[in-house]
Amino acid sequence: MKLKDKVALITGGGRGIGKAIAMAYAREGAKLALCARTGSELEQTVNEIQALKAECKGWSCDVSLEEPVQDFVASVMKVFGKIDVLVNNAGVMTRPVPIAELEVKKWDYTIAVNLRGPFLVTRAVLPIMMKQKSGSIINVSSSIGRSAYANFIAYATSKWGLEGFTQTLAAEVRSHNIRANTVEPGYVATKLTGYTGSKPESVTDLFVYLASDEAKGVTGKMLSSSGWKTK
Asked: Which residues are catalytic?
């Protein structure tokens, strides 16, 4: 029970990696606050977690919108009274095309969810963690956020930006005993990959580690689900 009584907020928690993290956290004793845009998937996940005898509640929220994010975090506090772990997992990826063919609205959409979203949610959660003088923020990155891949300009920019965001955040909140790290999960079978790749459950160990007290002092790191134990 590495996460006993910790409250974890996970965005994009209705399916894929977010759901797998939530289930793993529940098995380790955490209490879960989840958000997603697809209500049916979110409800199913909440029911599955509650079946594990873990506390869990879900909210519909578009993380790219300021007011809904603020309302969501306020609701989490009303229910749980604290937030120990934040996993910024919600993400989108449009069909890969050359930059000259990328529609501006798809660029804006990708940046809004993948980069503006983590900023908005983190900004809303930080005052809570600062008051607690503790917290772990885990941002889900991608190999496309660390190497160049042609035709993924919007997604790549959002994830490269998330890496920079996390590094700066880690430096800024270190004195408040708050940690911030990124995880590159690898090629995982989710909606973004057409459900090809490794099972989402195969990458959760690193997320449990970063949320736990075992990772005390680990901050500003860019970790990958494969080989992270050697870091």
From this structure: 155
